[in-house]
Structures are given as structure tokens and as C-alpha cells.
Amino acid sequence: MILLLALTASVSVFAQGFRRQPTPADTLRSTVVTGNSVVFQIYAPQAQQVSVSGDLPFGSPVRFVKEENGVWKGRLAKIDEGVYRYQFTVDGVSVYDPKSELAGETRALLKVQPTGDEFFAMKDVPHGAVAQRYYYSRTLKTVRRMHVWTPAGYEKTKDKLPVLYLIHGGGDNDASWPNVGAAGWILDNLLAEGKMVPMVVVMPNGTVTGVPNEVPPFAEDMVTDIIPFIEANYNVKTDKDSRAIAGLSMGGMETMEVAFPHYDMFSWVWVMSSSFAPGQDPKAEAERLKVPQNIAKINQSFKLMVFSQGGSSDIAYNNCKNTLKVMDEVGLKYDYVENAQAGHSWGTWRADLKALAPKLFK
């Protein structure tokens, strides 16, 4: 009898839901992209004020107007191509867009792809798979997550593949590269165009909470736990010439924290929009990582060492330049590039990945 009553109550609730009064939210498109402009829409009939914020490169705030049906609309007249995170603010409360077709873990994704031929667009090509993988970190004594991209056809091949370890920046996590970073789409397109060799791309979680400086413990986790997990669970090569590591911002710091002391594990290293820790003496940091002492071995081991930035507007620009002065003094062989003048943003880092992947493992 109790079970019957519970089921009856559940059916009643569902029935009430189906009979509810329709609203404009039922068919509302929260973002309407036309060329290089976008209209934002949210149904909030009782709201007094609505705005939108996020990664959007606003010259001025978007002005929202409430229509008679309770839908607020705001138009951004011009926006560059890219992938952007955004959120609404309704009467002072941050609201993640429940109508977004590409909802991320924290904020919704807005794709601005006027032609559909952008290098980060989802195209009609063979697509790889992005998997969430969990592993136990002996270093951090907890279960952690990573995202792993494998190329189209990986499931059927017996060939061992090289590996790129690709790290996000501060404040993000392992979902950032495959989401706002569009890593899977970029890699799918490059592989389909014959511009890169097949590889496995591991996107670990570089954020370690509860510690004052997360860079060293993540570096230990990478060497002790992440790389062994990948090599035990994926059909990959395990020599240093088949390993690459790259990271942006804080992930760039983590890249150096891993690669310089473990120069014998990697042949390909790329540091994006980063430097030694801001506020620290770069010469002392180089000494701590034993770069001067091991410089001959580092130069011999790294087939490619690159520092890249998003131009002078990149907030890491001066710190990176100061780090490179020390690198010049100790004799590090490296390339310096600016693949996009997009500052400290995903516009820069997506362009970096497009430039990075074709250079690896050749």
C-alpha cells in the first residue's frame, strides 16, 4: 500500500508538470548568433535587472531590455570568432544558462563560428573520443580525474601512439581544454587534414586544492601517478621521444616544474603565457629546478622547447620576458612565438594548440 501511494503521488506530480501553463522559456533560444553578432535571451518575468558576463570581450556592457512576455534580450553587435564562457546575472544573482546547448561544468559555452571553417569548429571529419578517467593519486592521497582524447580509429588500431600531456591554467580544471579550449575539435581537424601524427592527448587536473602552492605537488602527481596510469591503461609509447608536455598560465609553471627536473622524460616542451612564479626571483627559481646545472643535458634532451604568449597585452608578458632573460643567461635553447595577439585568453591558447600539435613527434 505504501508503495502504491508513493507511485500514485509520483504520477500525480508528473501529470501536473505536463499540464502546467506553457511559457516563452519552453522554446527560447538563449543565444542567437548571426555572423559576428549575438543576441542573449533569458526568461525572467519577475526580474528588475539582467546582465551578462564571462570571457566575452566587451567594449561596453550589453544592455538588456525586458519584453512584454517576460523575456529579457541583449545584443552584442560585434564579437570575434571564438568559444566563450558566459553567465547571466539576474537581480544581482549569477545564473548559469539552463537553455545552453553546450553547457559546461561551470558556465555555458557560446560558439561564434561565422563560416564554420574555423580551425576550432566541429567539422564533418572523423572524430576522436574524449573520455573522463579517474585514478588514485598516491601523491595527493585521493581519487582524481583527467580527460583523455584519443584519435579517430584508436579503438581498432594496434599501433602504440605518442602522448601529449596538456595542462590548463589557474582557476580551471581538466574539463577546460576539451570544453572552452575546443581541444578535441582542433585535434580532430588537424589529424583529418594530415597536419599532425596520431597521438593520445592527456588533459590532467592541474588544480590542487588545500595547499598554499599547488605547482610542486601537481608535478609530483604527474610523474608518480598520471604518466604511469596512462602508460598502464593506454596503448602508448613510453620513451622520452614519444612524450610531450605543455601548459598555459599556471599550467605553464607546472610544465616547467615537471620538465626541467625530469628532462630525461620529455623531448617536447611548450610553455604558454607563463613564467616562473610571479613575485619570485626567476634566477632563484631556475636554480631551484637545477636548470643551470643540467643545461647541457636539458638542451640535448629537448628536441623542441617553446615559450609562447598572446602579445604585449598578455598579463604574463613581462614575467615571461624576465624568465627568458634568465634562460638566455644559462644558455637554454628555445623558440619564442606569439601565435595570436589575443592576450591572456583562450583565443591565444587555442591558436597555440593549433601550432603545437603539428610540430610534435616528427
Characterize the structure shown.
The protein is built from eight helices and 16 strands. With 362 residues, it is an alpha/beta fold. The protein has two domains: 22-112, Immunoglobulins (Immunoglobulin-like); 129-359, 3-Layer(aba) Sandwich (Rossmann fold). The protein is globular and about 70 Å long. 41% of the residues are buried.
What would a concise description of this structure say?
The chain is an alpha/beta fold and 362 residues long.
SSE diagram, text form:
Blueprint: H1 2-18, E1 31-34, E2 37-43, E3 50-54, E4 64-66, E5 71-76, E6 82-90, E7 93-95, E8 108-112, E9 129-137, E10 142-150, E11 163-167, H2 183-192, E12 200-204, H3 215-233, E13 243-248, H4 250-259, E14 268-272, H5 282-288, H6 295-301, E15 304-308, H7 317-330, E16 335-337, H8 346-356
Parallel strand pairs: 11-12, 11-13, 13-14, 14-15, 15-16
Antiparallel strand pairs: 1-2, 2-5, 3-6, 4-5, 6-7, 6-8, 9-10, 10-12
Helix pairs in contact: 3-4
